[in-house]
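Kindly review both lines to help learners:
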Amino acid sequence: MRKFLSILCLTAAALCGSLAPASAAVKVPPGNRHAEQPPIPGASTRRTRAGKTTFDDKYEKIRDLLASDDDLRSKIRATASAYGIDPIHIVGALVGEHTYNVDAYDRLQSYYVKAAAYAGNSFKFAYDGEKIDDFVARPQFSTCAKFSDSYRLWTCREEVWEDTFRGRSVGGKRFPDNRFSAVFFQPFYAGQTFGLGQVNPLTAMKLSDLVVKRSGVAPLDEKDAGGVYKAIMDPDISLDFVAAAIRQSIDDYASIAGMDISGNPGITATLYNLGNTLQRARALAARNSGGARNWPEENYYGWLINDKLPELRKLF
């Protein structure tokens, strides 16, 4: 889900911002701030060319799947309702992922088949023989012990990784200059995501408590990599994590940046694509702390969703 090429005007690094009550959140205007689509990352273009297809073809394929599958649309409606969001936000995430990152299967059943292919496989979250539960037990992560909820706990751990371990030698062991999720949470190959929403395993770990609360799904455990993959690949569960990511981004921007993004699917799609909404909300709050009003901006991914919004809304 996190892509590093972003047009989003949230890149000024600020690790904290003044909290604004959700009730005071200013509604972000609908539509795109950019007249033309921001540049699409080269990696996405190369993947699409390698598949001998085009972005237009991939967009039409996921749009047609949504249009033709009553069961999928029903699941989306029910999931959106459970998380208190407009279904168009889930649609935006699915359309963006399957237009720019992967190619959609023709039928929902194919996603179930793919998920079943991984069921029962034995693998673990680890790096160079060190399991993730042992890694986060290192003393450097002690500052995260004060957090009991999965979102703040795993966000804290990710920040410790960035500040202390990424690209550094610690205790005689050299760690890669790469994202926490790519190093410890993708045992097959870096950058791997799965399912309808292409959810990253670390993202799922962060959102576990919210999904438990809203949907009653069993909590995820970093020691059970197979259980995490089942959750993000099974369409009956993975849509909950898509919705939870969107719900969390809306809440982060309302409570931290004082911005209500719930009426702009292009912004929620952008944040779904980029991830790390807590840090991005803090950065925007810092930019606006002097009384300025900088709106969050869509990237190439979110721009498409706002541009296609009239067509996508007809699906529901």
User: Anything to note?
Assistant: The chain has a mean pLDDT of 88.
